[in-house]
Write a structure and sequence with these properties.
With 123 residues, this protein is an alpha+beta fold. It has five helices and four strands; from the N terminus they run E-H-E-H-E-E-H-H-H. The protein has one domain: 3-Layer(aba) Sandwich (Glutaredoxin), CATH 3.40.30.
Length: 123
């Protein structure tokens, strides 16, 4: 398959998390409204093979990537407008590499997020 040209936006959640369950319909509506980007909802327990070594402390955690370049990775408030603004800002300011904030996370964590982005981008 060919790589997807837009951003890859991944919500990393868990079924047991009430906040994640509340956020899911908002995330799905955002995905429907932005067809140029690829959206994935990953349950970190049910889809542990996709998550690999990513360490999630706070739910929901959002990963936004351009190809394998991590533009954002971290917890978000489950508010639609905040996520829309984040995506719009990242899309309008393309990066040639990982975002500076991503580079401040431990190298192993950054690599784990890159691995998730790469596997989803290529499929």
């Amino acid at each position: 398959m060919t790589a997807h040209p837009g951003l890859t936006i991944v919500c990393l959640c868990a079924e047991w998390c009430g906040t994640c369950r509340d956020y899911r319909p908002l995330f799905d509506s955002l995905a429907a409204s932005l067809p140029d980007h690829r959206f994935s909802w990953i349950d970190i327990e049910d889809q542990a093979d996709l998550v690999g070594d990513v360490d999630i402390d706070t739910f929901p955690t959002l990963l936004v990537a351009q190809g394998e370049h991590v533009l954002f990775a971290g917890p978000v408030l489950p508010r639609l407008a905040d996520t829309q603004r984040l995506i719009a800002t990242l899309w309008q300011s393309p990066q040639d590499g990982d975002a500076p904030a991503a580079l401040r996370m431990p190298a192993g964590q950054l690599q784990a997020f890159k691995d998730v982005a790469r596997s989803l981008h290529a499929s």
